[in-house]
Amino acid sequence: MRLLARIGFWLLVIAIGLFSIFPFYYAVISSFRSGTELFSVAYLPERLDVSNYVAVFARQPFGKNIANSVIVAASVVALSLALGLTAAYAFGRIRFRGRSLLLMTILAVSMFPQVAVLSGMFELIRTLGLYNTLPGLILANLMLTLPFTIWVLTTFMRELPKEIEEAAFVDGATPWIVVRRVFLPLMMPAAVTTGLLAFIVSWNEFLFALTFTLTNERRTVPPAIALMSGSTAYELPWGTIMAASVIVTLPIIALVLAFQRKIVAGLTAGAVKG
User: Fold this and answer.
1) Long-range contacts of residues 225-228, Cβ cutoff 8 Å, at least 24 apart
2) Cα–Cα–Cα angle for 211, 240, 26, nearest 5°?
3) Which of 139, 148, 149, 222 has the largest count of CB atoms under 10 Å?
């Protein structure tokens, strides 16, 4: 019975692994195929044809699209962590009237669907003169990443002992020094986890990027891939779309592998309380 349970467990693990990895694996195989080969089923690579990868950069400014995504995602992560850390200090350490109501409001904002705020955000960005600019996308993406960043960092801030903060104040530290030199190192696993989540959200964001940009040179990679077209109106550029999808997935995989220990520490911190 115990052996059957163990076999069932590993079969379930294998099934979940195949379900998670197979779409990306098939995209990699498809990216090396061209012509009618794309519409036949194949589970193993037959040859390595890199023409799709060359076509991605030859037919449109895909390098510029990747640079736009890097700038937007990195800026969103930096602003989310800076604003989220200071807000978490206020929510976690300072008592003021309306603190719980404000936290619940932030949580409610994080649950709004993007389409519900699309028209209001469009008017705001157009009024500020940020339409078809990267700062406009950064401002829009902050609305998606800042609420959960504040919530996660506030939760971690409340778990930290107050004696550390009090000792720093006794030594003459200001609140900003306490946040930057005391809390930030202690909250590094949580900061890495929320920062990576913010990067993934901003990197994959599609609706705002499609609505708030007009020219291909200002687009990030999701709308750039969605708007790819073939040499004729009847051609579906499936091979170049798969190649572009593989290219934009690699940075996310590299980040997860580079920070996997910090991510695990951030996700499991606070799970066990003494």
Assistant:
1) 228/59, 228/60
2) 105
3) 149
Radius of gyration from C-alpha coordinates of the chain:
23
Residue with the larger pLDDT of the pair 167 and 270: 167
3 state DSSP class of 212: coil
d(CA 202, CA 186): 25
Nearest to 202 by CA among 146, 158, 267: 146
Distances (CA, A) of 250 to 35, 90, 190, 247, 268: 25, 37, 23, 6, 25
Do the Cβ atoms of 151 and 114 come closer than 8 Å?
A: no
- CA 105 and chain centroid, separation: 22
Residue among 118, 91, 115 at smallest CA distance from 103? 91
Distance CA 252, CA 243 (A): 15
Locate 56 and state its tokens: 């991605």
Q: Would you state the structure tokens that stand for residue 40, as one six-digit string?
A: 């036949």
- Residue 254 tokens read as 């590299």
Q: Tens digits of per-residue pLDDT, 146-186?
A: 988 998 888 888 888 888 878 888 888 887 888 788 888 88
Q: Which candidate, 262, 183, 244, places its Cα nearest to that of 59? A: 244
174-233 pLDDT, tens digit per residue, is 878 887 888 888 888 888 888 888 999 999 999 999 999 988 888 999 999 988 877 676
| pTM score | 0.83
Q: How far is CA 139 from CA 61, 76, 198, in A?
A: 24, 8, 13
The residues, any chain, with a CB within 8 Å of residue 130's CB and separated by 6 or more, are: 136, 139, 212
